[in-house]
Amino acid sequence: xxTLSCATYHDxxxxxxxxxxxxxxxxxxxxxxxxxxxxxxxxxxVKAALNFLNFTFPAQKITINLSPSDLPxxxxxxxxxxxxxxxxxxxxxxxxxxxxxxxxxDGSVKNTxxxxxxxxxxxxxxxxxxxxxxxxxAQKASEIQNLEIYAVSTLNEAIRFFEDDDFRHNCMLKNAxxxxxxxxxxxxxxxxxxxxxxxxxxxVIGQTRAKRAxxxxxxxxxxxxxxxxxxxxKSMCAKxxxxxxxxxxxxxxxxxxxxxxxxxxxxxxxxxxxxxxPHHTSTRSALFGGGTSGAKIGEIALANSGVLFFDxxxxxxxxxxxxxxxxxxxxxxxxxxxxxxxxxxxxxCFIAALNPCPCGNLLSTSLNCRCSDNEIKNYKSxxxxxxxxxxxxxxxxxxxxxxxxxxxxxxxMSQMVLKAFKYQKARxxxxxxxxxxxxxxxxxxxxxxxxxxxxxxxxxRYNLSQRGIKKVLKVARxxxxxxxCELISKAHLMEALSYRTRGxx
Length: 505
What we know:
By secondary structure, the chain is an alpha/beta fold. Helices cover 37% and strands 18% of the residues. It has three domains: 2-175, Ribosomal Protein S5, domain 2, CATH 3.30.230; 186-420, Rossmann fold (3-Layer(aba) Sandwich), CATH 3.40.50; 436-505, Helicase, Ruva Protein, domain 3.
């Protein structure tokens, strides 16, 4: 029996061992192991490709097993590994290597639509693996840093790859993506900082408090709500925040590209984190993922490690708003369908923007609000307390005045975030402040004595829940990181409390 490795995507990436055995019996060619239609059809493609090379099939029964056998598998990229196991059955022991590629009837090795996506997930799950791929995707695949890529164009070249060591060496490709050459190392880990500020905070006039909140939110990936009159800069701040977020690790860069590929988007590596801004008319399936048969990825999972922006927050339907509770609290979302169950990470920075009332003029000093008290009450009641309790920072934005000026730029803010990020990593912290679990909050969010007394007073004054207390501590931790303070002081805690909710204003 001989074995090669391949992979399939079903509720996540699954590594598949392709096994072959030749046995006595009536000549035949069977594929077992819950193979889908595209794999069953590969028998004819493999036969045609091998016949094109004048390969003589032995008078034996050929059985190909895809292990684990209880996992559904699909994809024409299994063709090459199946053909090689037949062609090399009498050869020496095969090396441990992943083999991907669809076969043409003339023996050519072709790319498939899902192959790059599989390689991205493979680089995360099985780093430093050796992988044999079609030449047409090899240049792009070789940019994946932690895979050893080899390229072939035909089945004949693939056979030579296993029989000729010199030819194998010539098949290897190594091509670093331009942006992956600019990595920085922080305490033994490699990160990709962003230096492209296409949208800059220097364009935001005034709104000093909102920009300070954005800075704090960026340090810890905290959730934030902007409330203010139309045109005061809510969307401007939200769209610029993604550019100042902490640098991504290489795994985060690969994971983001893999998630985009699942959404049938062009997969490339970017130093800028994901930014998703779905419209309030989007369906629940589009936002949270799903479908009639498979568990397709949605906007919330696509925003993982980046920003999810809900503009006109109260205009989203109540079921959608309430469904945000799980991904905001547990940092993951579970999608269950008849044939598929999958979990996606949702460690994003959630940003919401809304007007103070239906007409938008409630906070205006120059325009009159046309809404009744009942209309304002109904408008604000669309956001329940459980949702508001999951928000770290609430910012009420003022109108722009002629005296307002631009102050901090995105470059300056990004440098401050990077400095705070390094301070977090220096104490051995794995997650950003906004995503800390309860044990980590107790470990890293340590208060000075005076700050502890202030928190005890604030619990009753602000009617803080257990979740609310944790949120305040996480925000205070981010503020202390900006000042590079080991312990959270009273000043840090007071600033965190000032951003708590509408009641804190």
